Amino acid sequence: MYLARGNHENKNMNKIYGFEGEVHSKLNETFVELFSDVICCLPLAHLNLLVGSDSIMVAITWILSLMLNNPQVLKKAQDELENKIGRNRQVEESDIKDLVYLQAIVKESLRLSSPSGVIFPRAAMKDCTLSTGYHIPTGTKLMINIWKIMHDENLWPDPYSFQPERFLCSSHKDIDVRGQHYKLLPFGSGRHSCPGISLSLNVMHLILAALLHSFEITTPSNEPVDVTKSNGLTNMKATPLEVLLVPRLNCIL
Ligand code: HEM
C-alpha cells in the first residue's frame, strides 16, 4: 500500500546524494523537494515503530563505545557533570539543557554511527532533473544515503574521527538532528521523519548523563572497544559491548 503525501512547489532541484555519492553544494533545495513530494511505503513505517526502541539501544551502545575509545571525551563529559551537578545528587531531566558537551557527544555519535544508514524508499511525484545531470522520472524510487552525507569530508572535516567539539564551534553550534539541517539527518527529514525524535533524544541524554555521572566506566580488558558494524537494516555493533562500572557519587543511590 502506498501513501501519497505533499504537493510542494519547488523549481530548484539541485544535486542529490545517491548511492554514487555525488558531492553537492545545495542540499537544502534537494531535500525540500525529495522530502515533500514523495510517496512512502507505509508497511515500512510500522516496522520502524517496532524497531524504534531498538534504535535507542543501538545509539547508546555506539555512544558509549565511541567514548570508551576516546577517553578524553569521556573525561570532559564527566567534568561537565561534575561542574554543573556535583557529586551530591543525581542527574535530573531539567539538568540536560545545561549539559552542552553531552549534547554535542550525542550529535557527533549520531553523525558518526547513526542507527540508520539509508532512509526508506520514496518515489518522485513529478519529473525532475538534478544539477548532476540525473533525470528522475515520476515514480522513480529513491533511497537517501544519509550515511554517505554524514561522512562526506566536504561537509565534515575529518569525518571518521569522533569530535564532539565540532558541534561547539560557532558555525555548527546551532546544527541539530531534527531534520532541518540536511547534512545531519540521523532521524530523516520531512513529513515522514522519525516521530520518535524527542522521545529518543530525551531518553538518550538522560540515560547517558545518569550513567556517566554515577559511574566510572571502563572496559574489562582496558583494550579499545571493537567498533565493527553488523550487516542489516539497523546499524548494530557486531560484538557485544562489555563495560566495568564503579560507583562515583558521594550520595547513596
Ligand atoms: C536513536 C533512535 C532513533 C533513530 C536514529 C531513528 C531513526 C529513524 C529514521 C532515519 C527514520 C526514517 C525517517 C525518514 O524516512 O525520513 C525513522 C522513522 C520512524 N521512526 Fe525512528 N528512530 C529512532 C527512534 C524511534 C523511536 C523511539 C520510535 C517510536 C517510539 C520511532 C518510530 C519511528 C516511526 C514510526 C518511523 C516511520 C515514520 C514515517 O514513515 O512516517 N523511532 N526513524
From TrEMBL:
The keyword Oxidoreductase applies. Keywords: Heme, Iron, Metal-binding, Monooxygenase, Oxidoreductase. Coiled coil: none annotated. Its cofactor is heme. PROSITE patterns: CYTOCHROME_P450. The keyword Oxidoreductase applies. One of its GO terms (molecular function) is heme binding. Heme binds at residue 194. Belongs to the cytochrome P450 family. This is Cytochrome P450.
